[in-house]
Amino acid sequence: MDNRGSPSAQVLIMKRLLITSVFGMLFAGMADAKLTVITTTADLASLVKEVGGDRVQVSSLITGARDPHRIEAKPSYMSKAAGASLWVAIGLELEVGYESAILDGSRNPKIRVGAPGHVYAGSWVKVLGIPTGQVTRAQGDIHPYGNPHIWLDPYNGRIIARKLADKMGSLDGGNAQFFDRNAESFVKRLDYAMFGADLVNEFGGDQLWAWDNAGDLAATLRGKNALNDLAGWAGKMLKFRGQPVVTYHRSWTYFLNRFDLKVVTELEPKPGLDPSPGHVASVIRTVQANRVKVIIQEPFYSTKNGQFVAERAGSNLVVLPGSVGHDAAARDYISLFDTIISRLSAALGRQ
Amino acid sequence: MIFTAIKSAVAAVYAISPIVAQDAKQSPSYFNPQMAITGNFVGTLSDSSGEPRKFDFREIEFGFAADADPHLKVEAYIAIAKENGETVVEVEEAFGRYANIGHGITLKVGKIAAAVGRVQRNHGDQLNYLNYPLVIRDVLGDEGFRQPGISISYLLPGDRFNEFTIEVLDSDPELPVFNGATLAAPALAGRYRTFVDFSEDLSAQFGASYLSAKRLMKGGDTQASVVGIDAVMKWHPGAAGKSANFEAEAYWTKPGTGEETAFGYFIRGTYEVMPRLFVTAGFDSSEIPGTSDSHRSHLVGIALKPTEFHHWRLECEQITSNFEAKRSLLSFQFQWTIGAHPAHKY
Q1: A123 Cβ partners below 8 Å, 6+ apart?
Q2: How far apart, in whole angstroms, are the C-alpha atoms of residue A124 and residue B66?
Q3: What's the predicted TM-score (pTM) here?
Q4: Fewest CB within a 10 Å sphere: which of A56, A328, B193, B271?
């Protein structure tokens, strides 16, 4: 007897349809599930995007236009972090004022400090500027574990990309190879941008970085009659090696170390302190004595003091993006360095 | 329902695998709590009421925070304070927080600042002015409502921040709202808050709170209740040295069944006129619950904050009321913090 039209059969069909739809939606959701990553800075988000491509959902707490020292623990950051599987921070106390409050507020055990979903990129790189001797706040708002502006050395970007691939692969094994391939592709583009394609193809990126890290890049290439082939960022900055510069805040340590520029003084008398008239006068004297061509600062600081020093001492104030997105031209990690080096080399090259 | 929620929350805590520290580096002070000491000194330069001028410490607050174990984070704030000329030691807050339960739940147990309004949950040293607004002092006490109890808050899933908090707290008969009555049951507090980012520079938080406790009166039990709404809006552009915030709260207080509802509110605005120099202006109005008294306050203040770790403040306040003569006060504050970096709370 065909009872498909009876009320009980209709209920049964409806139930099956409902169950099928629910499971369909559930598994469709699982198939589309992307690793959700929250980073504290736009630079880290850019690196996660390079590695994760369209298989991760990444967002940064702040855009590159914000000073990462001065962020408040906004409740919206807690909501962002609540659904994350991976939290990527710089560490070295850059986020000391807000990280703990955001992580607590997110109520997300996956990303608490020490959990597999929590990483400090600062733990992967060689940290510069670790204070020696007694550390007190009389030295200003210093970072006892070292300078946290690690992303401003492209070599660190290379390390972080590879480490991110490992970490993201450990959390999303199905995409581990994809992340590794993307990281290697990014590293190759970064190496090309740093040294030029010809040298990278001839010697390999790892070797070129090893020579540069040892401070032997130019000498070694000269010995191999290859110095004229040095292109990219390293090529552009080669002729400025050893030049004195002034910075506003101690944020350019890694960048200047990589390209061998020497900081003779800073506009901040101590980290976190505004320039006083007496200190500005001393900076003018230092700029004149050292024939400093360039004063470097980020856009979020007032240009008043830098401009004043530049005019009085016959130098140039160069406002450089310190992070991805800080400037329309600095749209990702590689174009950040393109922008910095293009502007800085132009200023250093001025007579 | 509350006890069921507590039971499931506690069960969830123990279902979580302990978190293992990944950093192998250790120092002898590794397990010491983070510690900060805040000194809050206040002086009176002029007082029209004839009170003698004075310069004294208001409080020295010791703050400690650390993970007790993989499940529990503990915070304690102990103040040595001056109250009516006496030096007293007060536990302002001391609680354990289970923040890794998951499912959007946080559980706090201990002496906590009740989830009523926003400003009274901040400690006195975190305010942009010298004293808690009149309505908070009239309803919740000079230092706000801080009592032992249990607090559960739930963060709704989704991109928008929406949080519900429910608390069961020991009632304090000395709180103005309870007016010295014998309390038959713990106080219940509840709060909802939501948050909006209008842009990266401009954001706001809105909240609504409810506090209630049963009072034993000669004529029979009665219910005291407080309903409050609060809002804060902040403007923080990327450029250093520019910021503004505006905060307002309103409270309707019913000290007992059939009694008149007292209404009070305050509005306060702070603007960074130049880097590290802040101007604050505010207006308060408050009807004192259970009485026919009311008072109002106008204040303006200026604060210089050379760093995050210390500031100077000069504040002028004028209070008018229907129960005492107009009072004008000119006060200053010197405040410092040593130890752990202060939290950048919203």
Answers
A1: A91, B23
A2: 25
A3: 0.88
A4: A328
Residue range A199-221: mean pLDDT, rounded: 96
Q: Cβ separation of A109 and B346 shorter than 8 Å?
A: no
3-state secondary structure of B131: coil
On the question of pLDDT at B336 being above 60, the answer is yes
Are the CB atoms for A318 and A342 separated by under 8 Å? Answer: no
Chain A hits for B309, CB-CB cut-off 8 Å, are 137
Given a cut of 60, whether residue B326 has pLDDT beyond it is yes
Complex ipTM: 0.88
The helix (run of H) or strand (run of E) holding residue B3 is helix B2-15
Query: Are the Cβ atoms of B19 and A105 closer than 8 angstroms?
Result: no
| A270: contact with B, CB 8 A cutoff | no
CB contact under 8 A, B161 and A75: yes
Three-class DSSP labels, chain A: CCCCCCHHHHHHHHHHHHHHHHHHHHHHHHHHCCEEEEECCHHHHHHHHHHHHHHEEEEECCCCCCCCCCCCECHHHHHHHHCCCEEEECCCCCCCCCHHHHHHHHCCHHHCCCCCCEEEHHHCCCCCCCCCCCCCHHHCCCCCCCCCCHHHCHHHHHHHHHHHHHHHHHHCHHHHHHHHHHHHHHHHHHHHHHHCHHHHHHHCHHHHHHHHHCCCHHHHHHHCCCHHHCCHHHHHHHHHCCCEEEECCCCCHHHHHHCCCEEEEECCCCCCCCCCHHHHHHHHHHHHHHCCCEEEECCCCCCHHHHHHHHHHCCEEEECCCCCCCCCCCCCHHHHHHHHHHHHHHHHHCC
Shortest alpha-carbon distance between residue B95 and chain A (Å): 14
Q: Considering only CB atoms, which chain B residues are within 8 Å of A114?
A: 19-22
Over residues B250-288, the pLDDT tens digits come to: 999 998 877 899 999 999 999 999 999 999 999 999 999
pLDDT of res. A262: 96
Interface mutation target, options B107, B245, B346, chain A, most CBs of A under 10 Å = B346
Is residue A309 classed exposed, middle or buried when 0-12, 13-18 and 19+ CB atoms within 10 A define those classes?
A: buried
Question: Residue A213: which residues within 8 A CB-CB, separation 6 or more?
Answer: A155
Q: Which among A241, A240, A218 has a CA at the least distance from the CA of A229?
A: A218
Structural contact between residues A208 and A190, judged by C-beta atoms closer than 8 angstroms: no
Closest CA in chain B for residue A62: B200
Which residues on adjacent β-strands are paired with residue B338?
B37
Mean pLDDT computed over A333-339: 97
Residue B215 has pLDDT above 90, yes or no: no
Percentage, residues of chain B above pLDDT 70 = 89
User: Among partner residues A75, A107, A123, which is closest to B99 by beta-carbon distance?
Assistant: A107
